[in-house]
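We modelled each protein-ligand pair independently. The example shown here corresponds to the zinc ion entry; the chain sequence is given first, followed by the ligand as SMILES.
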Amino acid sequence: MVIKTEKDYFIYINLDGFGKYYYDLANKYENGTPNLNGLINEGTFFRNLYTGIPSITFPMQSSIVTGGYSNLTGNCYQYFDKKEGKLIKCNHDNEGETIGEVLNTLDKPFVSIQQFGLRDKGCSFDDDKFVYFQPGGNFKVRFQLLQDIISGKTVKSREREYVFESLPEFIFFYADDLDALGHNPEYTSYAPSRKKALTENDRISSVVERLKEIDNEIGKLVEALKSKGVYDKTTLLITSDHGMISYKGKSSLPKLIKKLNDMGFEKVTLIDENSRVSGNIKKNEVIIAGTGIQCQTYFNEDIDLDELKMELDSEDYIEKCLTQEELIEKGIKEEFADILISPKEFMHFNLDINKDFILDASHDSIHEKCQKVFGVIKGPKVCRGKIYEDKAYNIDMIPTACAMLSLPLMKDTKGKIIKDIII
Ligand SMILES: [Zn+2]
């Protein structure tokens, strides 16, 4: 029996580290993700969806739920504070308003299954109406919790028990298996029997294999919503915070330092959280902060950054540089970097210049593999079977969903409502 309901439902699934190329590879020779493809057929698929900078988990997860990058959230992971002379870590800061806070203000209850961008930003542990769950574990544990909530079973957040007699109207879900496997670590509890891949093909295969397992869970979710009679009333959004790129061998940082020396910057200082730099940056000085792959550089205010960028762009280990002005245009706060330098694939600016990496992967890069992410939305107000070709950003997704659900937008949101996909 199909139960009639007047409610609208919204489920936002974030699969951390879901670069679009993984999806493309899974579907190159076969229908590798039949359930995601089912959603794509019933909704709108974003073929050119991008994340922001830096493409690092916490800043991007909070950007998505806030609808803006660090010029709104204040969180750009880290930046060198020129006045204080030290590297500031942004940790879990988010100065913007999240979709969770919007729903909280409207008194519309929701649950978050480990979507930590909303933790204490709309929901929390021990809140009866705005419940934050942190089950940990891999995707199976989290999808099981979601199934239990849908089927009205008793579920637990820490020591508190909950029974959702009717389906929560808003559900936020997060799983990070693709990220954990994508990094190609020596060991991960997400796949205990898996070994570190020694080739890029093997690394990608292990991620794609997990993607297919997640796809299977998405199929079960669709079935559960159908049997509950709410599927047609549910807006379902799936997207990600960043992709992933491999790197190996030794750091290109010594080459960059030599280049900077040759250009007249005699003093190059590498900084971390514990470093202190006194006084203003002199004309012949550079400060470099790293996050593993890309690096943030800081100069004296009289240095012509455009000129510098042009010269650096021609180096064979650099894929792309972005000046402060270009970064600001992309919605990044001005303190982030004077010039952001991102290397070519397989190269890196790791601050550990002696380490010889076998095959590691991460996502703090402006390479397409990190920037381009998966994105699909389906629901009663979404165009069916549409491939959206225009460039869009993951910060546009929640504002667009808000418009579909007749919800007010987050305060000062920068994300666009993509009207072309709304019916
Ligand atoms: Zn991430």
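Residues 269 and 287 are 5 Å apart (CA to CA).
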